[in-house]
C-alpha cells in the first residue's frame, strides 16, 4: 500500500483491486444509482449540484477517474428490489439487546475493579502493593487486547454467535476464579480470562449489530451496545460503592457479573440466529433467507433474494477455497486495497484517539483524583463521572443518525479540548503535587479550584460521551464485508492498546509531569485528533455498508460525503452516490 493509494492517487492496477473488493464501487452499483436518479422526484435534488456533478449524474458511469456513457438500466434492476432497510423489527431489537449484554459486560468488568481494589484489603493473602494493583487492573485490558486480535478471525470462521457464546463461558470462568481467589496470581488469572471475554464482546457485538441493523438506524442500534458499556460501568461503580464496606463485598460484586453472560448464552442458544451476512459468507443461503424474512417481515421473496445475491457478490470479492486461504487473502486485501486500507487507517485512528485523549484515566482513577483534590467521599463523587458518561451516551443515541458521525465527533472533540484546557489551568492554580500515593495541595483557595476541576471534568466527560466515546465503535460500517471482522479486530486491538497504555502510565504522569502537564498533553492529543477527523473522516450517516466502501474508493471524499449526507437528509436515500464523482479534465470531450 503506497501513500499515494491511501490519499487517492492510484495506479490502474490499484483501481481494479479497489473495485473488486468494494464490489462494483465503480461499476454496476453506480449504474444502479444513476438509474435510480431517473425514478427520483423530478430532478429536484440535483438543484444544489455543481455542473460537474450534474454531468456525472444520470449521464456517465465512473470508471476509476474516467467517465463513460452508460446504458439505461431497467427499473427492476434498482435497489427497490432489495430489502427496504428502513424498519426495525422486533427481532432486530431483540438481537441488538442480546448482543449489547456484551457491552454491559465490557463496562461492568472495567468498572467494578476501581472499588474492588479499595476494598480487597488483605483478602488475597496480603495487602496489595501499588504494582500488584496495576497488574490486576491491567490483566483485563491485556486479555481483551489478545482476544480482540484473535476473535475477528474466529468470528469469520465459526460465526459471530458461537464466538459470542464462547465469551460468555470465559466471563463465567473468569468470575468464578476471581471469586475463589486467595492469591494475587489467581486474581490476575481470573481477570485475564475475563479480559478474553471482554475483548471478544467488544469486537463482535458491534459487528453483529451493524450487520443486522437497517442502515437508517444502524448508528443508534450500535450505540445501544455502548449504553451497555457505560451503563455497566455505572452499575459497577454503584454496586462497588454499596458493597465496599461489607467484608468480601468485592467478591459479591464479581459474582454478580456471572448472570448477564448466562442470559446472553441462553438467548443465543435457544432463540437467536447468526447474521445473514455471515451465513451468506458461509454459503448457508437458505438459512440466511429464512432469517432475512424474519428480520424484515414486510419484505417480498424477490427482495430477500435480491439482497442475498448482493451479499454473495460482495463475498466473491474474497477468493480462496478454505478458511486459511480466505484469511490470507483477507489480510492481504486489508493492506493492499485502497478502500479497505483507508477504512483500517480511519478506524484505528478513531480508536486510538478515543483512548489517547485520556478518558479512561478518569474512568479508572477519578476516585484517586477527587481524593487528592480534597473530596471526602471520593468514590461517591467519582460516580458523577460514570453517570455523566452514561447520560451523554443516551444523548448520542438520539442525535447520532440525525447530526451525523463526523459533526458529532468534531463537536465532541472541541468540547473535550476546551474542558481539558480548563482542567489544566485549574490544576495549575490548585498547585497540587503527587508524591508516591500522597497528594499535597498548595493553593489557599483549593475549594474554588476543586469546584472548577469538577465542572471541567463533567464537561469533558459529557463532551467525550456524546461523540468520541461512541462513534469509533461504529467501525464495522467502514469495512467491506469480506474483511469486516478482521479490520474491526485491528481497530479494537488499537482501542485496548490505548486503554492499557493510559491506565499504566496515568499515575506516573501525574507524578512526573504534574496534573497540569498531563491534562495539557491530553489537550494536545485532542487537537491532533481534531486535525485527524477534519482530514480523514468522511460522513457515512445514512449510507449502506456497501456505499460506505464507495465513499472510501479513490480517496477519503470528505466534502463529497458531507454533500451526500446533507442531500439524503433532505431528499432521502434516492440521492445517488454518483453525485460524488467529479469528472477530471478532458471528460467533457468523451461525452
Ligand atoms: O466506548 C467506551 C466507553 O466510552 C467507556 O466508557 C470507556 O471506558 C471505553 O474505553 C470506551 O471504549
Lay out the secondary structure.
Layout: H1 3-6, H2 12-21, H3 28-39, H4 51-56, E1 60-63, E2 66-69, H5 90-120, H6 130-158, H7 160-180, H8 184-212, H9 218-243, H10 249-256, H11 259-270, H12 276-281, H13 285-295, H14 301-316, H15 323-336, H16 338-356, H17 359-373, H18 378-403, H19 405-430, E3 432-435, E4 438-441, H20 446-468, H21 484-536, H22 545-551, H23 558-571
Antiparallel strand pairs: 1-2, 3-4
Describe the 3D structure.
With 591 residues, the protein is an all-alpha fold. Among the domains are: 3-77 and 540-574, no CATH class; 84-316, Up-down Bundle (Growth Hormone, Chain: A). 71% of the residues lie in helices and 3% in strands. The chain contains 23 helices and 4 strands. It has helices at residues 3-6, 12-21, 28-39, 51-56, 90-120, 130-158, 160-180, 184-212, 218-243, 249-256, 259-270, 276-281, 285-295, 301-316, 323-336, 338-356, 359-373, 378-403, 405-430, 446-468, 484-536, 545-551, 558-571, and strands spanning 60-63, 66-69, 432-435, 438-441. The strands form 2 sheets. It has a two-stranded antiparallel ribbon with strand order 1-2. Strand 3 (432-435) and strand 4 form a beta hairpin. The chain is globular and about 70 Å long. The structure holds 1,2,3,4,5,6-hexahydroxy-cyclohexane. 1,2,3,4,5,6-hexahydroxy-cyclohexane is lined by residues 110, 226, 229-230, 233, 354, 360, 363, 389, 469, 473, 495, 499.
Amino acid at each position: 500500500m503506497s501513500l499515494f493509494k491511501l490519499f487517492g492517487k492510484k495506479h490502474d492496477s490499484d483501481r481494479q483491486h479497489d473495485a473488486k473488493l468494494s464490489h462494483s464501487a465503480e461499476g454496476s452499483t453506480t449504474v444502479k444509482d444513476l438509474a435510480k436518479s431517473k425514478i427520483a422526484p423530478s430532478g429536484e435534488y440535483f438543484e444544489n449540484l455543481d455542473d460537474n456533478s450534474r454531468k456525472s449524474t444520470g449521464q456517465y458511469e465512473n470508471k476509476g477517474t474516467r467517465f463513460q456513457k452508460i446504458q439505461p438500466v431497467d427499473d427492476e434492476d434498482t435497489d427497490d428490489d432489495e430489502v427496504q432497510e428502513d424498519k426495525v423489527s422486533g427481532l432486530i431489537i431483540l438481537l441488538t439487546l442480546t448482543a449489547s449484554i456484551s457491552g454491559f459486560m465490557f463496562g461492568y468488568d472495567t468498572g467494578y475493579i476501581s472499588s474492588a481494589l479499595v476494598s480487597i484489603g488483605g483478602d488475597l493473602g496480603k495487602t496489595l502493593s501499588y504494582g500488584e494493583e496495576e497488574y490486576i487492573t491491567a490483566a483485563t485490558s491485556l486479555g481483551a487486547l489478545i482476544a480482540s486480535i484473535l476473535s475477528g478471525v474466529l468470528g469469520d470462521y465459526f460465526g459471530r454467535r458461537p464466538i459470542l457464546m464462547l465469551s460468555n463461558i470465559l466471563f463465567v470462568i473468569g468470575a468464578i476464579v476471581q471469586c475463589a481467589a486467595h492469591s494475587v496470581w489467581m486474581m490476575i488469572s481470573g481477570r485475564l480470562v475475563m479480559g478474553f471475554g471482554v475483548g471478544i464482546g467488544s469486537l463482535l457485538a458491534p459487528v453483529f449489530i451493524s450487520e443486522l441493523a437497517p442502515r437508517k438506524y444502524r448508528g443508534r442500534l450500535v450505540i445501544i451496545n455502548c449504553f451497555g458499556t457505560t451503563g455497566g460501568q455505572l452499575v459497577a461503580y454503584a454496586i462497588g460503592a454499596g458493597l465496599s464496606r461489607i467484608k468480601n463485598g468485592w467478591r459479591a460484586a464479581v459474582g454478580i457479573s456471572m448472570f448477564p453472560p448466562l442470559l446472553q448464552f441462553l438467548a443465543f442458544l435457544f432463540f437467536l440466529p447468526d447474521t445473514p451476512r455471515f451465513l451468506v459468507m458461509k454459503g448457508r443461503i437458505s438459512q440466511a433467507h429464512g432469517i432475512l424474512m424474519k428480520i424484515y417481515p414486510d419484505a417480498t421473496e424477490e427482495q430477500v433474494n435480491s439482497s442475498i445475491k448482493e451479499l454473495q457478490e460482495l463475498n466473491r470479492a474474497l477468493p480462496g477455497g478454505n478458511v486459511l486461504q480466505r484469511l490470507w487473502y483477507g489480510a492481504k486485501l486489508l493492506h493492499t486495497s485502497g478502500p479497505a486500507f483507508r477504512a483500517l487507517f480511519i478506524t484505528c485512528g478513531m480508536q486510538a484517539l478515543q483512548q489517547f485523549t485520556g478518558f479512561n484515566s478518569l474512568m479508572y482513577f477519578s476516585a484517586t483524583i477527587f481524593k487528592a483534590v480534597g473530596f471526602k467521599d471520593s468514590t461517591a463523587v467519582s460516580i458523577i463521572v460514570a453517570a455523566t458518561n452514561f447520560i451523554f451516551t443516551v444523548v448520542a443515541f438520539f442525535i447520532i443518525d440525525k447530526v451525523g458521525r463526523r459533526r458529532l465527533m468534531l463537536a465532541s472533540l472541541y468540547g473535550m479540548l476546551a474542558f481539558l484546557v480548563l482542567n489544566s489551568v485549574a490544576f495549575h492554580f490548585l498547585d497540587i503535587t503527587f508524591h508516591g500515593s500522597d497528594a499535597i495541595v498548595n493553593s489557599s483557595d483549593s475549594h474554588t479550584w476543586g469546584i472548577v476541576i469538577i465542572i471541567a471534568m463533567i464537561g469533558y466527560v459529557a463532551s467525550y460521551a456524546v461523540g468520541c466515546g461512541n462513534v469509533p465503535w461504529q467501525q464495522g460500517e467502514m469495512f467491506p464485508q469480506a474483511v469486516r471482522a478482521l479490520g474491526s479486530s485491528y481497530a479494537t486491538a488499537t482501542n485496548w492498546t490505548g486503554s492499557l497504555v493510559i491506565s499504566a502510565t496515568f499515575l506516573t504522569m501525574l507524578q512526573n509531569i504534574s496534573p497540569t502537564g498531563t491534562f495539557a498533553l491530553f489537550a494536545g492529543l485532542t487537537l491532533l485528533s481534531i486535525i485527524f477527523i477534519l482530514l480523514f473522516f468522511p460522513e457515512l450517516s445514512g449510507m449502506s455498508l456497501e456505499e460506505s466502501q464507495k465513499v472510501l474508493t479513490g480517496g477519503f471524499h470528505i466534502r463529497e460525503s458531507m454533500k451526500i449526507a446533507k442531500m439524503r437528509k433532505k431528499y432521502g436515500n434516492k440521492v445517488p452516490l454518483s453525485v460524488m464523482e467529479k469528472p477530471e479534465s478532458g471528460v467533457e470531450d468523451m461525452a
